[in-house]
Amino acid sequence: MREDGPKREITATVVKVLVHQRDDRGMSLEPFASRCVREGEVHELVTTDHDDTTPGARIDRVGFLGFAEIGCAGVIDRGDEVWIGGVRVGTVLGFDGCHFPNHYNILIHVPEPRTGPDLGLKPELDVRFTQSR
Question: DSSP for 22-63?
Fold first, then answer.
């Protein structure tokens, strides 16, 4: 049974670049495959090479990209493509809520964890979450 229909693209803007990586972060994957986001919220973008989507899966190997302010409300789903500055970064693996309600860590699956400087990120770059086809 197909559950998901078409949805709007979520736009955001980089507001802070992060520069560090960890191999022992200990994040825990939320049991949700999607999260609603509101205009003006700020969430953290984190890369990882983990691919386990089991609720509670431990996420240790991470690269921190930065924080992004949501430009329009909508739904971010596991599997959405993440684009920053017109470059495809990876796909949404899921969410870690260790800092919620302040912000979610949006976990982005990539071949190798990367940081903001690794990708040449700067404040004001555009971020897009697009539905995978």
Answer: ES---EEB-S-SEEEE-TT-EEEEEEE-----STT-EE--EE
The domain tally of the chain equals: 1
Phi first, then psi: give them for residue 19, nearest 5 degrees: -125, 5
Q: Please state, in angstroms and as integers, the Cα–Cα distance from residue 64 to each residue in 5, 21, 56, 72, following that order.
A: 31, 6, 20, 23
Copy the structure tokens of residue 79.
Answer: 């599997």
- pLDDT tens digit string along 24-51? 999 999 999 999 999 999 999 999 999 9
Q: How many Cα atoms occupy the beta-carbon half-sphere of 29 within 13 Å?
A: 25
Three-state DSSP at 32 gives: coil
Q: Which residues constitute the domain of residue 15?
A: 10-131
Query: Which amino acid, 81?
Result: E
Say what the pTM is. 0.94
